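Tutorial sheet, problem 5. The four components below are modelled jointly, 468 residues in total.
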Amino acid sequence: MPPHLKNAENASRVLAQVRQLIESGGVAADGKLPTERELSIQLDVGRRALRRALDALEAEGLIWRRQGKGTFVGEPPDPTGRLAAEIGVNADALSVMEARLCIEPELAALCAIRAKPDDIARMRFLVERIDQSSDADAAELWDGSLHRLIARAAGNPILMAAFALVDEVRSSQLWQDERDRARSPRLREIYTQQHQLIVTTIADGNADAARAAMREHLTHLSRNLQAVRETDQT
Amino acid sequence: MPPHLKNAENASRVLAQVRQLIESGGVAADGKLPTERELSIQLDVGRRALRRALDALEAEGLIWRRQGKGTFVGEPPDPTGRLAAEIGVNADALSVMEARLCIEPELAALCAIRAKPDDIARMRFLVERIDQSSDADAAELWDGSLHRLIARAAGNPILMAAFALVDEVRSSQLWQDERDRARSPRLREIYTQQHQLIVTTIADGNADAARAAMREHLTHLSRNLQAVRETDQT
DNA sequence: GCGTGAACCATTTAAAGATTGGTTCAATTT
DNA sequence: AAATTGAACCAATCTTTAAATGGTTCACGC
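Model answer (structure tokens):
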């Protein structure tokens, strides 16, 4: 047995052992695994080797670790999601639209100043994807991606976090999204043109035009939402 | 002296004494008042009577109290601020100003639509307090309270949370705040006028004017900040 | 050169005690 | 009789200290 093969075997053995532990229920109710020191004893392996296995599992997304806190199975808690859940109780669809109308035009304007050519190409691609999606779910997905890309390319971390918060609240209101998805072909055509205008104004580096185009788009969405709500109440 | 008049005098005396304390600077930099037990000794009044005065001041919105924590002057922090802090955005001062310029004019506009008479009275009071503060710490405290009140009175929980996010980042940049505090009397006068205009436009229910007034105020702040930064780099 | 175990470092948690506002109760004053 | 008062008790928060836990470094052995 050549040493480097023995080592490779050892590494994958540890990895398999940790996986087995996770799958067989060696996990507390809150998803907490035994400590590194405990695991290294339990699996009869050095802590350093264990850490390499845990590194791999963390890279894979199976676990998350926090210094001082421990090692946990699953996704790390999302502070934005928790904040969104807390305020979502008091927020209705109109509040969401109001917040979007506050934040997203400004994001579009900043994006027009800061977007890179790669960003613009990706936006064009996404507009195309939205247009060509045959079902509403897919269109919604690409639509969300476009708005997130604009928010990111705006290059302001606070506004990006604020956008993420609005997005989180919005995406947790599924019944509203279902109404949004009941779009007529005529509305889809309008939105495509609006998306194209937004991206064109951003590509032109015209912050004022980008702001206005995004505002127009969201105002249209908002009016559509209000019309649907009024129809539902009669 | 009829007995019931003596009692009424005592109650209003305590109330006036606490007000005086607040206005004369018996407040820590974070807005914290002495504890109830300290105040009752300091003002030579029973704690029960003092609490009645504090109850009144709290009802009036001048102070807020939290069991186990203390008694504070100004507008309470938004409950979602704790969660906002966990999101852990890092940003420089210009990003903070950029985010404020995005969010706060819109908050002012919504506030102009939704503020109640009590809110307006409180805003006027806060503007007065900012103006009359003899040190920069106190001015900063009242200034923060005014902006928080406007954000709250805007009545959109999502934007309130977004504001809390910005406020959290901003309040963690203490060295920046020290620069802000190096304000000339001329600048203070300008800011007072701007604050007054903001509140007047809100009281008039003029959303567009309120938005413009807040934008003007923050643009002024932003320029001042940039000027200070450029001076520091030479 | 690589892996290992030990030592050290940085962050979080837990526990205990202290602090602070909130409430109740009995005694006193009005 | 009603209101006030001071003391006692309760509930929430803070502070301090030590322990726990992941993160990193270092010296040694293979």
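Marking note: Residues 102 and 215 of chain B are 9 Å apart (CA to CA). Full credit if you identified this.
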